[in-house]
Amino acid sequence: QVQLVESGGGSVQAGGSLRLSCAASGIIFRLSSMAWYRQAPGKQRELAAVITSGGGTNYADSVKGRFTISRDNAKNTVYLLMNSLKPEDTAVYYCKTGISWGQGTQVTVSS
């Protein structure tokens, strides 16, 4: 079965950085598109970034230029490097592939 395990969340001040990791198992990782979603309190879950099996990337306008999604096929892991964090980036961040979701990791940005 597919398992996605996120890590790297935490609390940071505005302007700071965090790197999230998502370790995947139960899939042919190198052939899978991977995505990071986020859900802020009281809001709908939204796509933050996606990376295809070929390495192509796409970002939500709200994170473009600040977040970078990458993958390491040797480690079956996808990353989300988040720079210049803002309070509005506060959310639970989820890793997703196909119809499978991770459990989420909390990111809190204080002003």
Helix-strand blueprint:
Layout: E1 3-7, E2 10-13, E3 18-25, E4 34-39, E5 46-51, E6 57-59, E7 67-72, E8 77-82, E9 91-97, E10 100-101, E11 105-110
Parallel strand pairs: 2-11
Antiparallel strand pairs: 1-3, 3-8, 4-5, 4-9, 5-6, 7-8, 9-10, 9-11
Based on DSSP secondary structure assignment, what is the total number of beta strands? 11
Spans of at least 5 consecutive residues with low confidence:
none
Please outline the major beta sheet: 7 strands, mixed
Kindly state the mean pLDDT as a whole number?
A: 98
Taken in chain order, the helices and strands follow as: EEEEEEEEEEE
Percent strand: over 45%
Report the total helices: 0
Structural class assignment: mainly beta
CA radius of gyration is: 13 Å
Oligomeric state of the chains present here: single chain
Estimate percent helicity.
Answer: under 10%
Shape: globular
Distance between the termini: 40 Å
Would you mind describing this structure in some detail?
- With 111 residues, this protein is mainly beta.
- Helices cover 0% and strands 53% of the residues.
- Strands 2, 4, 5, 6, 9, 10 and 11 form a 7-stranded mixed sheet that branches. Strands 1-3-8-7 form a 4-stranded antiparallel sheet, with no helix packed on it.
- β5 and β6 form a beta hairpin.
- The mean pLDDT is 98.
Features:
111 residues; mainly beta; 7-stranded mixed beta sheet; 4-stranded antiparallel beta sheet; globular
